[in-house]
Amino acid sequence: MEEFKVQTAKHPVPNSSPMRPHSEHSKENAAKRLSSASNGTSDGGAGCKTPVEITALEEAFRRFAIHGDTRATGKEMNGKNWSKLCKDCGVIDGKSITLTDVDIVFSKVKNKSGRTITYSQFKEALVELARKRFKDKSSEDAAQEVYKMIEGKSPIISGVTRAVASPTVSRLTDTTKFTGSHKERFDETGRGKGKAGRVEMVDTSGYVPGYKHAGSYEKKVQKPPQKPM
């Protein structure tokens, strides 16, 4: 009988670094989850991907990223929507942070030849603005305050602007001031008469035009129908 040698699989030896607290592991796992969530998937094993629930901050990023652009995928945001996000979410206060500051930070974090920013660059930009907005807080606390201002938010859609009628338009659309043939096209309530207002209709009733009791004679002389025997 031949002897079979059992060869155990060799695994890479982990770094011989000291054990870290559980809180640091949680932070690292959360950072990895946010990084993979930007693409909507996570590596669940060799050659497979599983969907990952995105955070409220990334959800707001995607909502503003696709605003006004039907071809946008939600993975990148242009400068116009970035400015709108900062304005709608109250990041711009007009004092410590202005629209100019927002544009400068956008140009700083984006690629040199690019016109959009990714979700990771978006978070970098928020950290930059948080330092200017909350100077009395640490970088982490300031960033969390800005995140809370954006989480779950959506673009504000302005209402439809109402047209204000000028005196000239009001005069041209007031049927009570029409004269001539134009006046004949509308009744006393301002409602159009239709064909009767456009074509001269011949009255063959035998009554004088405008007679209030037109048709009363026919009603008097008309005999009631006789009942069958």
Automatic annotation (TrEMBL):
The lineage of its organism: Eukaryota, Metazoa, Chordata, Craniata, Vertebrata. This is Tubulin polymerization promoting protein. Pfam families: p25-alpha (PF05517). One of its GO terms (molecular function) is tubulin binding. InterPro entries: EF-hand-dom_pair, TPP/p25. One of its GO terms (cellular component) is cytoplasm. Belongs to the TPPP family. Keywords: Cytoplasm. It comes from the Eukaryota. Residues 1-49, 179-201 are annotated as: Disordered. It is found in: Cytoplasm. Residues 21-31, 181-201 have a biased composition (Basic and acidic residues). One of its GO terms (biological process) is microtubule polymerization. Its main location: cytoplasm. SUPFAM superfamilies: EF-hand.
